[in-house]
Inverse folding.
């Protein structure tokens, strides 16, 4: 509530001011009106109205100052409101720009479906009033665009195929890196001029590769250079190198090595001599038959512990060579009291000659119960023995062994069953051969 004393005094002063200065009358009147409308309350005036009446009225300068301060405060308030309004407008524009940018990056799915393009603008305007965090956290779900034919082909054909080709390429690279690219003469040079530890390794690898008939290294074999290195191997400290080279000459199958191998039958090491017997059999060397028969006749020529091993290989080689002069010695080996495979090899050699004296031994070789009783044989050795016996029966056209062969049709080994069926088919197609007397 305004003080009456202040209002009366302000009006009186205003009247005097109008009389002296008409130009100021309007400003002072406005100032008086503002001061009368403004709530000027002091604690003292609330406590006592009499004290307020006794106070002196303010001067015109004080009123002007007060009016200016009020105007300044109102101006500041207006500026603050204007700044706040501008800030709100800037935020609204920023939100609008963000929503428009987001809507521009999303595929216009609704436009493809036939919806009017103005829907995006309405959605953008509606989202201006929402907080930015809310817009960022809950984006409008957009359906995925359909994958074209090219994308499907790439995803399910090109990309998997590229992975497979990459794996194959890596495997081929490592296979190439691990394979040996040395030539035949490179091996021979390593054997002849290399360190002692290198010689045996090179000789073994060369022999292993020559054994593989699919290895093209066989096509580049130099028999004369091999024989030269073989002759030098007599002086090698490691005689295993000479022993492996002996087998190598047998696998090369060149009769130019015949004389060197016959000479090796008298070598100082048993391994080289035994391998020479095998190699000469591979060469089918008739030149070696007298030496073989001499070794069978004179047991002192072979160390007793190695005798069965020599006899077994000699029987095999005599069968490979096919010289009939060896038949009596082979028949004698059928009754050998040592290792059973000595007689087995002799029976197979006699079957090559068509000699029916091998039938009894072949029958024993076909008997699985008989082979099961030999503890030193494994399953693979037993199967191989039966298959070899069936080959011998086929060479002899042994009709007398039909019953034993029929039993093998139900054998546990698939390979044995197949071999038995082939022999029976052979017996049915041809007349049995007459027994040799």
């Amino acid at each position: 509530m305004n003080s009456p004393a202040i209002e009366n005094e302000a009006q009186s002063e205003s009247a005097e001011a109008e009389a002296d200065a008409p130009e100021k009358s309007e400003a002072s009147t406005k100032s008086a009106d503002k001061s009368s409308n403004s709530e000027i309350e002091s604690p003292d005036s609330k406590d006592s109205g009499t004290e307020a009446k006794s106070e002196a009225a303010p001067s015109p300068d004080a009123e002007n100052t007060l009016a200016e301060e009020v105007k300044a405060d109102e101006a500041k308030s207006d500026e603050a409101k204007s700044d706040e309004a501008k800030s709100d407008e800037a935020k609204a524009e920023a939100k609008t720009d963000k929503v428009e940018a987001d809507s521009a990056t999303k595929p216009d799915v609704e436009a493809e479906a036939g919806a009017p393009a103005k829907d995006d603008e309405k959605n953008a305007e509606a989202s201006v009033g929402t907080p930015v965090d809310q817009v960022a956290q809950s984006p409008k779900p957009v359906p995925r665009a359909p994958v074209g034919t090219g994308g499907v082909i790439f995803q399910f054909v090109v990309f998997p195929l590229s992975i497979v080709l990459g794996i194959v390429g890596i495997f081929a690279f490592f296979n190439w890196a691990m394979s040996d690219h040395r030539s035949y003469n490179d091996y021979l040079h390593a054997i002849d001029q290399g360190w002692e530890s290198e010689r045996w390794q090179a000789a073994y690898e060369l022999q292993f590769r020559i054994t593989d008939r699919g290895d093209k290294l066989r096509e580049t074999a130099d028999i004369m250079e091999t024989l030269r290195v073989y002759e030098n191997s007599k002086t090698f400290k490691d005689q295993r190198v000479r022993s492996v080279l002996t087998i190598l000459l047998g696998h090369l199958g060149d009769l130019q090595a015949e004389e060197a191998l016959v000479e090796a039958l008298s070598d100082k090491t048993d391994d080289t001599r035994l391998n020479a017997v095998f190699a000469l059999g591979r060469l089918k060397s008739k030149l070696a038959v007298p030496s073989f028969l001499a070794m069978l006749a004179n047991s002192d020529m072979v160390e007793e512990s190695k005798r069965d091993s020599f006899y077994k290989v000699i029987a095999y080689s005599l069968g490979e060579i096919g010289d009939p002069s060896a038949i009596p010695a082979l028949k004698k080996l059928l009754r050998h009291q040592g290792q059973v495979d000595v007689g087995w090899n002799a029976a197979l050699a006699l079957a090559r000659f068509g000699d029916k004296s091998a039938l009894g031994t072949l029958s024993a070789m076909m008997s699985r119960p008989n082979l099961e009783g030999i503890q030193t044989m494994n399953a693979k050795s037993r199967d191989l023995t039966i298959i070899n016996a069936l080959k011998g029966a086929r060479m002899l056209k042994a009709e007398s062994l039909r019953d034993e062969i029929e039993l093998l049709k139900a054998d546990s080994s698939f390979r044995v069953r197949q071999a038995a069926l082939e022999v029976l088919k052979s017996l049915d197609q041809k007349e049995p051969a007459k027994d040799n007397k």
User: Anything to note?
Assistant: The chain has two domains: 4-99, 184-429. DSSP finds 24 helices and no strands in the chain. Residues 4-99 form one domain. The radius of gyration is 59 Å.
